[in-house]
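Researcher: Quick test of sequence recovery. Tokens follow.
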């Protein structure tokens, strides 16, 4: 078995010597497309073994075994010849693979993955070394293949500190908790319309896997996930992630889920379950907002995705969505209408307030998980604050949030009760009418803050004069002391 523990380190050490690679973000992207081709080659071997008429969509000279694998003969491409082949033959060929409506998804993903991919390396000898390290992986070995799935998770976690790429990665503790609490059922279809590297899709599959018992169940499992990702790099990572987890025909699309008219969705577009962490903090162009009714059109990306979720959740369906604090207390037109719709047409039964720094180091924005069903209007909403674990001041790259940190929330979930700590609510139930009366302010049971005392103007002026007089007295005393000492020194 390949020594997987040092796999990433070996690749990084080689790439640091290449003049074309600048920083971790480019290193990871370079590793990503090479890994995709290695993983895809292993899958093609399986498909060719099981299907007599299987034909690869990749040209023969561009398949991994033809140019990347080293057979020990000494004739393998390296140096300038390898760089020339990758830049002038491999990439153009993969980008130009024809795709029609009849092209199977497992083949259509190849040109989609390479649509905007780049080869950053300039030194063909170093590129050969990188390729050789990746080729050492024996993905036909079941044990090694599963072990590499864990290594791939390490690559995805590294994204959090690789420039802005961390925006596509949701900590696995969060995705696993949400998938567990949503209670998957085999035969359901789960969707993520901004799926990034596929974290929610993988957590769903892992949570659902124990229900696989019959010969037909693995097919139901692999067809139970659907994703859309706007940006090419995380899309590539997501596809590779799914292939590594035995989803051989990934129903994941390289597209922008926000560019379709909201009112045109039908039952065919609906999902039984939606698990998402919509991008937040960004904004969309006016032409994107034109796809939304005026009362839901927003410049905030998270609001637009929330609208998509509400329109694409099947009747009777369930959803769990990560949203920033700004959605909870926001009072602009779109947010108010989305929250009103949530209460009137959906059952928003639980809001979990997450501790700060869950998404560190990518962002320090405090987030929440909203759990709701499309089963009728909301009666009551439970809010629960998940505090920072004992011994933690904040989460970090070296001390990330772990799955067990959700244990208090899970324990509370089963036997819900109101909790007051230090005079502040940690868990509390609100009726829909109470939240409406609060102006749809969902910012409840958050981290307590010391409230500022607001005084009437006259009292405020009097207090200012008193504090200023006291300060002046201190200044006069210090000046007198200094004058005395200086006078004594003279």
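Model:
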């Amino acid at each position: 078995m390949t020594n997987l523990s040092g796999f990433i380190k070996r690749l990084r050490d080689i790439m640091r010597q290449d003049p074309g690679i600048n920083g971790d973000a480019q290193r990871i992207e370079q590793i990503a497309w090479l890994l995709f081709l290695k993983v895809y080659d292993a899958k093609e071997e399986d498909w060719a073994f099981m299907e007599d008429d299987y034909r690869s969509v990749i040209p023969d000279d561009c398949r991994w075994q033809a140019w990347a694998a080293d057979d020990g003969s000494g004739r393998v491409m390296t140096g300038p010849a390898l760089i020339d082949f990758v830049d002038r033959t491999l990439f153009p060929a993969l980008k130009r693979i024809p795709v029609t409506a009849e092209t199977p998804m497992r083949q259509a993903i190849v040109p989609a993955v390479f649509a905007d991919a780049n080869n950053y390396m300039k030194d063909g000898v170093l590129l050969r070394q990188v390729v050789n390290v990746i080729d050492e992986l024996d993905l036909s070995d079941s044990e090694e293949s599963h072990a590499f799935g864990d290594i791939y998770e390490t690559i995805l976690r590294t994204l959090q500190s690789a420039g802005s790429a961390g925006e596509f990665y949701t900590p696995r503790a969060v995705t696993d908790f949400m998938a567990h609490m949503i209670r998957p059922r085999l035969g359901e279809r789960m969707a993520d319309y901004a799926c990034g590297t596929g974290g929610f899709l993988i957590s769903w599959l892992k949570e659902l896997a124990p229900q696989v018992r019959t010969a037909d169940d693995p097919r139901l499992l692999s067809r139970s996930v659907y994703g859309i990702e706007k940006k090419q790099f995380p899309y590539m990572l997501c596809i590779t992630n799914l292939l590594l987890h035995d989803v051989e025909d990934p129903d994941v699309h390289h597209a922008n889920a926000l560019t379709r008219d909201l009112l045109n969705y039908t039952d065919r577009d609906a999902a039984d379950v939606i698990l998402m962490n919509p991008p937040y903090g960004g904004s969309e162009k006016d032409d994107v907002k034109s796809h939304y009714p005026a009362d839901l059109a927003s410049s905030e990306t998270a609001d637009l995705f929330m609208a998509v979720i509400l329109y694409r959740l099947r009747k009777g369906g369930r959803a769990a969505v990560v949203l920033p604090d700004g959605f909870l207390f926001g009072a602009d037109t779109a947010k108010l209408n989305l929250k009103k719709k949530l209460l009137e047409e959906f059952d928003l039964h639980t809001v979990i307030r997450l501790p700060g720094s869950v998404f560190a180091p990518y962002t320090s924005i405090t987030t929440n998980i909203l759990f709701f069903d499309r089963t009728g209007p909301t009666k009551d909403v439970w809010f629960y604050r998940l505090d920072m674990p004992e011994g933690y001041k904040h989460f970090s790259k070296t001390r990330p949030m772990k799955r067990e940190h959700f244990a208090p929330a899970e324990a509370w979930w089963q036997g819900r009760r109101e909790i007051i700590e230090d005079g502040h609510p940690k868990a509390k139930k609100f009726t829909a009418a109470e939240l409406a009366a609060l102006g749809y302010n969902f910012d409840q049971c958050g981290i307590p803050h010391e409230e500022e005392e607001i005084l009437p103007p006259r009292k405020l002026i009097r207090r200012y004069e008193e504090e200023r007089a006291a300060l002046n007295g201190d200044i006069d005393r210090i000046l007198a002391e200094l004058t005395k000492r200086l006078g004594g020194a003279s």
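The first helix runs from residue 7 to 15.
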